[in-house]
Amino acid sequence: MKNIYIIAIAFLMVSCSSNLEDLNKNNKDPETVSGESLFTGAQKALVDQIVQINVNENNTKLWAQFLQETTYTDESNYDQVTRTIPENLWSAIYRDALKDLDEAGKIIVETFYFSPEDEYTNNKLMIIEIMKVYAYSHLVETFGNIPYSESLNIDILTPAYDDGITIYKDLIARLTTAIEALDTSKKSFIAGDNIYKGDVASWKKFANSLKLRMGMLLADTDDAFAKTTVESAIASGIITNSEENAHMHYLPSAPNTHPVHANVVLSGRNDFVAGETLIDIMNTLNDPRRPLWFTTVGGIYVGGKIGSTSSYASHSHLSEQIVAADAPGVIMTYSEVQFLLAEGAERGYDTGDTAANHYTNGIRASINEWGGSTADANTYLAQPSVDYNTLTGTQTWKQVIGTQRWISLFNRGPEAWTSIRTMDYPVLATPAEAVSGFPNRYTYPIVEQTVNAANYSAASSAIGGDLPETKLFWDKF
């Protein structure tokens, strides 16, 4: 009988020990993360950064002079240093987007034989590759030379900077490979793709449209290469209507609302009003998009003077449509594609139509995409101050296309900023207290000067100096 008690006590002790160990386990958080969920997070982090209005992370809507700050005007005056903005952008793209996209691909490959979506694996990997190309292209267009070939290797703590144009052409090659490898007869992400819901045909059109955009950026640097790139993108199939626009689908409630909603509405702050540069041009042109984007002051659209404090109550501010929680986080539109094609046609590329028709299509699409009517578009286009053939009789095509493309890119800071740098139109105001000339690039993060000093110095020297005014390899004029 004594032996039976001893055995029973021993059993209870083992059971209690096991239960105590179980108490230390975190049963709420998964031990592993799927590649698909990493992709979802990286996709959102990337688009959040692109459409962001927070002055700590993205100042391009201010630099494009779409908006003006009400009280704190440092960023409107081209101050990149006080808030370490370049470092925040650098981290958001490299750490939160590219690294997670890279890991997502690795995990999807590792779990290939265990996923019910195995037959969709290749399409998933190609979509991840397209997003990586998009992320890297944004970094090159922002900084110039950047860490690339060694950037995602965790064993290299001080990655070398690669040459900007070499990276850019390699990205276009990677994009072409991904486009050709997509199988539109199969699916991809069943869930978690908050841009195209896993539709492979749509991803292919976006990738080709991105290739078009990237090709056009090189037109002044390598015209022959740009022409080949643009024409191959068109032949493979670009976005052909506004229903195919690429945008993040945000939700009506936090924490997955549009970043502009978070920074304007949820913050309870009144930090931004319309910029005088945009408002003055739109007022002159009787632009029908004004009520879609801005409020009025006594029935008049009033923009804040660039670089100066601007009372919120005395100036137009963003409309309810712009600050809506579930507003689309746009990264590519049909209207943008048409303006790129207009530029291509003027350069002698085979775009399938005339520059004038592409330009007209771009304006119509932009007005319609924001909720304007066909009648609005017709009235606007009938004006001599907007009509392409009238304008090109007295102005350069870069001025005509550049101004309307810039307007159409409202609320899309990085693309508008890049358009200004490539087309040199419209002519922007000089901020009241500018700390530099117009920023042609973000300066490198301060942390790079300390933790990666040798490579930083080499990159700075290679691009002509780590200055805001330094023009990048594609910005020739």
From TrEMBL:
<keyword id="KW-0732">Signal</keyword>
<dbReference type="InterPro" id="IPR041662">
    <property type="entry name" value="SusD-like_2"/>
</dbReference>
<protein>
    <submittedName>
        <fullName>SusD/RagB family nutrient-binding outer membrane lipoprotein</fullName>
    </submittedName>
</protein>
<dbReference type="InterPro" id="IPR011990">
    <property type="entry name" value="TPR-like_helical_dom_sf"/>
</dbReference>
<dbReference type="Pfam" id="PF12771">
    <property type="entry name" value="SusD-like_2"/>
</dbReference>
<feature type="signal peptide">
    <location>
        <begin position="1"/>
        <end position="20"/>
    </location>
</feature>
<keyword id="KW-0449">Lipoprotein</keyword>
